[in-house]
Design goal:
This protein has about 375 residues and is an alpha+beta fold. About 25% of the residues lie in helices and about 40% in strands.
């Protein structure tokens, strides 16, 4: 082969080798940059955050009980007789002194007239004897006997008036009457149940609590009651009385709450569930998901920008998915609540909910 051809082949081989070298260098540089980018992306954990905030936490105890009227009595006659008037409309309110039942009082009226006449007669007799005694026309014993008979007549008149009063039954207080157990015209005996009268301006609910709460239950503490008959509605009252004894068998004690019932919608005998607020106070809280427990220590990851920092905290009460913090954080501090398994102290994170109000460091949201 001529020399010039050999030189040409060498030049071509050199050119091909140079091109291959440049291509390799470019490919190697691009691959290194891509790997570095992937490494950086892998090191930034994806998380969601929330803010530590101040909330009012309540220590609530649940109990159950049955409502009863503030005052409740059975309407019964004190004497026998026939019912001539029945002023009872079941479920209706009555005022104090309203006539509920009236028995036939014909004989009682006659007895009263007779007693009044006898009293008048005895008064006149005493007057005559007194005048005669002034002139010694009668003995002292006659005056004493006339005085005694007058006192007897007065007592008989009082009994007659009382018997007449017993023929009419009045409402001793304002309240709501129940179902009538007899009909007008029926003959009743003393003690026969006619109806019931309930004062429902307030209802009492008695319930039992474990003895461990005895020292924490005080008169005046707030109670919230609920009933299945009124879904979504609550009734607020307070503790009125606490029993001084603990049942040795159940290890529980009784307490009584009073719930205002101005509209009278709560009846007597209704089953009710109660929420008793034993204590309430403001605490700095974070979601339960933010707390990490390790051995005897608990901690959270806070954020400074997008850098996670591990902070030890002391936890307190738990309520509604929130945990009270006794120390370790300030209000408004952002804490990681999701993605914790990839977070490391001092490492960068990527915040998914960065624009939400919960992650806004100023508490203003976007």
């Amino acid at each position: 082969m001529p020399v010039w051809k050999q030189i040409l082949v060498l030049c071509l081989l050199a050119a091909v080798g140079y091109g291959a070298y440049e291509g390799y260098q470019r490919y190697s540089s691009t691959g290194t940059e891509s790997t570095a980018a992937q490494s950086r992306g892998a090191s930034a954990a994806t998380v969601e955050v929330a803010q530590a905030e101040v909330r009012t936490l309540r220590d609530i105890v649940e109990a159950v009980g049955t409502s009863r009227a503030k005052r409740s009595i059975e309407i019964v006659p004190e004497t026998d007789g026939r019912v001539v008037e029945l002023g009872i409309t079941p479920g209706a309110g009555v005022d104090k002194g309203a006539v509920l039942v009236r028995l036939d009082d014909t004989i009682a009226q006659a007895d009263l007239v007779e007693a009044e006449a006898r009293l008048t007669e005895r008064e006149q007799a005493l007057s005559r004897v007194t005048q005669l005694r002034r002139t010694n026309a009668v003995a002292e014993a006659a005056l004493e006997e006339a005085t005694a008979r007058l006192a007897e007549a007065r007592a008989q008149l009082d009994r007659a008036r009382q018997r007449l009063t017993e023929r009419t039954i009045l409402a001793p207080f304002a309240g709501v009457v129940g179902l009538a157990e007899i009909d007008e015209g029926a003959r009743v005996s003393a003690g026969t149940l006619i109806t019931r009268l309930d004062d429902l301006s307030e209802v009492e609910v008695e319930f039992a609590l474990p003895e461990t709460l005895f020292a924490r239950i005080k008169i005046g503490q707030k109670v919230t009651a609920h009933s299945a008959a009124f879904p979504g509605q609550s009734f607020t009252g307070q503790i009125e009385a606490v029993d001084s004894r603990i049942d040795p068998i159940s290890r529980a004690f009784r307490a009584r709450a009073v719930i205002p019932n101005p509209d009278g919608i709560l009846p007597s005998g209704m089953f009710m569930s109660l929420d008793l607020i034993i204590d309430e106070a403001e605490h700095l809280v974070v979601p339960e998901e933010a707390i990490i427990f390790q051995a005897a220590q608990s901690y959270v990851f806070t954020l400074d920008g997008d850098i996670a920092t591990r902070v030890a905290v002391k936890t307190g009460a738990r309520r509604d998915g929130m945990v009270a913090l006794l120390d370790g954080l300030d209000a408004g501090t952002r804490v990681v609540i999701r993605g914790l398994h990839r977070v490391r102290d001092g490492r960068q994170v990527q915040i998914l909910n960065a624009d939400s109000p919960a992650s806004d460091p100023d508490g203003q949201g976007s």
